[in-house]
Design goal:
292 residues; alpha/beta; seven-stranded mixed β-sheet; two-stranded antiparallel ribbon; 38% helix; 17% strand; binds S-adenosylmethionine
């Protein structure tokens, strides 16, 4: 089977199978071989690597992954794509196609079965409608992985990479930066896909830390503080946390704080009582969470 990464090859497969793109699954297929080469380089795939691909579509990127990696497990939700994948990937003996919803699949178990629980690399041109739950699911469920290299909406890539004091900084930036080092590797124009998405795209690599960059007594509490701070991002931090129903302790039990109490802690941390969440670093959120 020839490479699919060209408009004519992709259209041929789609027409042959009478495939209809499903918007609800975020289906925008890559048709640019140069971009695919760059994604493989960005992910630093070697023949030692086990790779999980999320959403292979008709198998365009899977072909490139299969040629560079030891094995690839390609997880695709759309059952209409499975017969297509069985044909387009038939020559690659190191590929397994899994017809599942990535948000429901026990990925830890897949890694255990395929790689003895050793870290894998995740590579994907993600369905944009579920970018955040996919990334957070991979990190929070402690899936053994060394890196995640993904195509996402450009603005979402920016949000993952920025630091405090910028408009894009928020809960996603802090969560990603707690687990991994984010690096935007390349920008990708809508013309590189069929059909063209309405937004610009970027490939970002998240290299997982072996240890989190900061110490905190309870991750659960830390992430609840971050969520509460950004649920009402226009409010001061003290007002956003006061009487918020988002706060939970290390056991997951809700707790409440008053504005005065938070102001006291901000004094202790030598931060202004009128500071907003968007001005705090990850370290400062961790310190505040430990004090609460
Ligand atoms: N990798 C292909 C490419 O680059 O041409 C397709 C990428 S397309 C942006 C996203 C793919 O993810 C589609 O094939 C879609 O059907 C699949 N998908 C959407 N939601 C999914 C889910 N919850 N679990 C697994 N795959 C999903």
């Amino acid at each position: 089977m020839a490479y699919l990464a060209a408009p004519a090859a992709t259209l041929e497969v789609i027409n042959k199978y009478g495939f209809h793109f499903q918007k609800k699954y975020g289906q925008n297929f890559l048709i640019d071989g140069n971009i695919l080469e760059k994604i493989i380089d960005a992910a630093e795939i070697t023949e030692e690597d086990g790779v999980i691909e999320i959403g292979p579509g008709i198998g365009t990127m899977t072909q490139y992954l299969a040629e560079h990696a030891k094995w690839v497990a390609a997880v695709e939700i759309d059952k209409n794509l499975i017969p297509i994948l069985n044909e387009t990937l038939s020559e690659y003996k190191n590929v397994t196609v899994v017809n599942e919803d990535i948000l429901k699949l026990d990925i830890g178990r897949l890694v255990q079965e395929k790689n003895n629980g050793q870290p894998v690399k995740i590579v994907a041109n993600l369905p944009y409608y579920i970018t955040t739950p996919i990334i957070m699911g991979l990190f929070e469920n402690q899936v053994p992985l060394s890196s995640i290299t993904i195509m996402v909406q450009k603005e979402v890539a920016d949000r993952m990479q920025v630091g405090p004091g910028t408009k894009d900084y928020g809960a996603l930036s802090l969560a990603v930066q707690y687990y991994a080092k984010p690096e935007i590797m390349l920008k990708v124009a809508p013309a590189c896909f069929i059909p063209k998405p309405n937004v610009g795209s970027a490939v970002i690599r998240l290299t997982k830390f072996e240890e989190p960059p900061i110490q905190v007594k309870s991750e659960k509490k830390l992430f609840s503080v971050i969520r509460a701070a950004f649920n009402q991002r226009r409010k001061t931090l003290a007002n956003a946390l006061a009487n918020s129903s988002a706060l939970v302790d290390e056991k997951g039990n809700e707790f409440c704080v008053t504005r005065e109490y938070v102001c006291g802690l901000l004094d202790q941390m030598e931060l202004s009582q009128t500071i907003r969440g968007e001005a705090l670093t990850l370290e400062e959120f961790a310190r505040l969470s430990d004090l609460l």
